[in-house]
């Protein structure tokens, strides 16, 4: 990149020339089973609408080591395939140490 371009966008000064609006929301999910697929698109769309921000990006991140976020169609056959694939790759076992009640309780507080 050319230095003139970087200066024009405030990269060298460390202060962007445009003001940025930020909206953040923390979502919590309490599930009954060891693996659950939660369709959060409508919730994310509502958060974006309520923010009144018209231009930007959305970052969705799982904040727990055994949680994950994936982007794909909300199609039941696809979700069943993914679930079967995950079960074959990393089967659920109660004897895993991270499933012990003391560890689960400690991470939820």
Please count the helical segments: 4
Query: Which segments are poorly predicted (pLDDT under 50) over 5 or more consecutive residues?
Result: 1-12
Strand content: under 5%
Instruction: Tell me how many strands there are.
Output: 0
Helix content: 25-40%
Helix-strand makeup class:
mainly alpha
Q: Describe the global form.
A: extended
Order of helices and strands: HHHH
Q: Measure the end-to-end span.
A: 47 Å
Overall domain count:
1
Average pLDDT over all residues: 76
* Main sheet attributes: strand count, strand direction, barrel closure: none
Radius of gyration: 20 Å
Describe it for me?
The chain has helices at 3-8, 41-51, 76-89, 101-108. The protein has 109 residues and is mainly alpha-helical. It has one domain (20-108). 0% of the residues are buried. The model is unreliable at 1-12 (pLDDT under 50).
